[in-house]
Amino acid sequence: FLRTLQQLSGHSYIQYASDKTNYSYLQEIPADKKDDFARLVLNYEYIWYGDLHIERHVYEKVESEFTAFQQKYII
Q: Residue 54 and residue 47: Cα distance in Å, rounded?
């Protein structure tokens, strides 16, 4: 997730700062990317802050969503 934030910053979609919240980034990101990015944020927060231990198939699904987002907007 942090790499995605840094990549978005590198493309000037957001301004990365270590003290910002994910909500702040959602407010910054362009409207055409907001829904896709919001899904990434939700997955990240649910898994990371929820301290979930996820099954491999769930991890692979989330990973594919991050990859698709990066390919669509960053790469």
A: 8
Give the Å distances, CA to CA, from 5 to 15, 55, 57. Answer: 9, 25, 24
Give the pTM.
Answer: 0.89
Does the pLDDT at position 52 exceed 90? no
Q: How far apart are CA 47 and CA 69, in angstroms?
A: 18
Number of other CB atoms surrounding residue 70 within 10 Å:
15
CA nearest to 64, candidates 36, 35, 29, 33: 36
Q: Chain centroid to CA 11: how far? A: 14
The reported pLDDT for the residue numbered 75 is: 81
Residue type for 1, please? F
